[in-house]
Design brief:
By secondary structure, the protein is of the alpha+beta class. The chain has one domain. Helices cover about 50% and strands about 15% of the residues. The protein has six helices and three strands, in the order ββααααβαα. A three-stranded antiparallel β-sheet has the order 2-1-3, sandwiched between helices. Helix 3 runs antiparallel to helix 4. It is elongated, with a radius of gyration of 18 Å. It comes from Shinella fusca.
């Protein structure tokens, strides 16, 4: 089972056709090509930071005594982007005015969309309450941190 976060655009209502489903899981593409993956998802600052850290790791990997540390730094960068990349996408959309409408556990995206459509009948779209993540209730900041744990009280 995977967890999908359903985000609705600014001004949208629950059950909106433009809702975006973000699967919260390890991303192999982000692991293999972290900078390109971040650029594709328009996370410019994170891509620049990942590029700088990887350049530092590659420079250290060429040094005879720091080679293993440089390789470890590159591997850590790849792993962090692969694990936290979907959370970075959600944080970026939230800063742009999108809201998290639902959190759905499903086997695949099609099943998640079916569950979301069943939860939001056509007549009840106005009365449904918005889903709140634990971090949004406790943090005075506009968004949760993007590195490490993303502010969830209970973890993932």
């Amino acid at each position: 089972m995977a967890t999908f976060l359903v985000l609705i655009p600014p001004g949208g209502r629950p059950g909106d056709e433009r809702a975006r489903f973000v699967r919260d899981r390890f991303s192999w593409i982000a692991f293999l090509l972290p900078v390109l993956w971040l650029l594709w998802h328009r996370a410019w600052l994170a891509a620049a930071l990942a590029f700088a850290v990887q350049a530092l790791g590659l420079a250290a990997a060429g040094h005879p005594t720091l080679g293993l540390a440089g390789a470890g730094l590159c591997l850590a960068t790849h792993s962090l982007v692969a694990l936290e990349g979907p959370s970075m996408v959600v944080a970026t959309l939230t800063r742009r005015g999108w809201t998290v409408d639902a959190v759905i556990a499903a086997g695949d995206r099609g099943t998640a969309e079916d569950i979301y459509d069943m939860e939001t009948p056509a007549g009840e779209a106005e009365t449904r309450e918005r889903a709140l993540l634990p971090a949004s209730e406790t943090s005075p900041r506009r968004h949760a941190p993007m590195l490490g744990l993303v502010g969830f009280k209970e973890g993932r």
